[in-house]
Write a structure and sequence with these properties.
By secondary structure, this protein is an alpha/beta fold. The protein has 14 helices and nine strands. The two termini are 52 Å apart. The N terminus is likely disordered. Keywords: Membrane, Transferase, Transmembrane, Transmembrane helix.
Length: 360
């Protein structure tokens, strides 16, 4: 008896019917017998519980789904919202500004949006939500400005730099951009750990296929070349995939297709914890003779390894900075602290300037 486990000790009384039997329960002694996990009825009951848990538990991690089987009509609408519809809704003058966000990044999205709003470009922003929690939260606060391109990802693993989840998250980027180009729109992509200090569009000179920023910390002259830099020690350039502007040209589409191809041939593994940036650089290097490329001003688009670490250079280039990228540092709290140290964490005092308002 000591080895036998029971789901409950209370006898099953009439007039209830055993859900696993075709005949009603009687008042015989068997009706008062507890159900053992090792019995047929016990195993069937356990199986039913596992099925129920299997349906409902995957939703439990999202704060937006206390009753996941009861989507509101508005949530159902956004679940079916297409990229074509979303881009058409937000685009201005044939251009859309895109970011890709999973739920843990919402505070950074809000901070970035405040800076974009200060430059009067917030209406052009489309948030590509990588999970349903982000999709519903953004569209609840700012209808029409978020879209999810299936499949949805696991938001709890996608934000850990160097993880397979992070690779899966960032590796989708060129496909998203290619689809927007195929719809005929110009597209600017930004990571959301960025802050706009000026309107970046004023620096998009000419009619080139693709614009991008250097990720090197070595200081360039203010009048540096806008050509693709020569390869470094690893045989490729060191361009950042965090800020890209593309026109819907054959050249830009070729670059995206090559980027997708590079990511497919160099997938993430435990031995080689890849991310999307090396693939982007290989794509740039291999298509440079076919694509009209433009390297943006280092002073206007400095990498975090330069802007946050070289006070002398920052002072010398004051007034020239357009977008600051908070890279060369890993971890949410470290990034937020650095932004605060440089008065760039805007959500503390200026959340009302974001289209999303103050996030709870």
């Amino acid at each position: 008896m000591a080895q036998q486990k029971f789901l409950h000790q209370r006898p099953i009384q009439n007039p209830f019917t055993n859900p696993f039997s075709s005949s009603p329960l009687s008042n015989s002694s068997t009706s008062n017998r507890p159900i053992s996990l090792l019995s047929r009825n016990g195993l069937l009951l356990l199986l039913a519980l596992l099925v129920i848990l299997g349906v409902f538990l995957p939703w439990a991690g999202s704060p937006l789904f206390p009753f996941p089987n009861r989507l509101s009509s508005s949530q159902s609408k956004w679940r079916d919202y297409s990229l074509r519809q979303a881009v058409k809704f937000v685009a201005k003058n044939g251009t859309v500004i895109v970011c890709a966000v999973s739920y843990p990044y919402l505070p950074f999205l809000n901070n970035w949006l405040i800076s974009v709003s200060r430059q009067k470009h917030q209406d052009q922003v489309l948030v590509i939500a990588e999970d349903y929690a982000t999709l519903y939260k953004v569209n609840e606060k700012w209808p029409g400005h978020a879209v999810l391109i299936p499949p949805a990802l696991d938001s709890q693993t996608a934000h850990k730099f160097g993880s397979q989840g992070f690779f899966n998250f960032t590796a989708r980027r060129p496909q998203h951009l290619l689809e927007i180009l195929d719809l005929g729109y110009n597209v600017m992509y930004n990571d959301v750990d960025m802050v706009w200090l000026q309107d970046p569009f004023q620096y998009l000179e000419g009619k080139h296929d693709a614009y991008f920023m250097d990720d090197m910390t070595a200081i360039k002259p203010l009048d540096h070349s806008h050509d693709l830099p020569p390869p470094g020690k690893k045989g490729r350039t060191y361009i950042c995939s965090c800020m890209i502007f593309l026109r819907p040209t054959d050249g830009a589409k070729l670059l995206m297709k090559k980027w997708i191809e590079e990511l497919e041939t160099q997938p993430w593994s435990r031995a080689k914890k890849a991310n999307d940036q090396p693939g982007f650089n290989w794509a740039l290097n291999k298509t440079a003779h076919q694509v009209d490329l433009y390297l943006l001003s280092q002073a206007a688009f400095p990498t975090g390894g330069l802007y946050f670490k070289n006070k002398t250079w920052v002072k010398e280039t004051k007034g020239k900075h357009a977008i600051i990228h908070n890279n060369y540092i890993v971890g949410f709290e470290k990034k937020i602290k650095r932004f605060r140290d440089f008065n760039l964490w805007l959500v503390d005092d200026h959340a009302s300037e974001s289209p999303l308002g103050k996030l709870e």
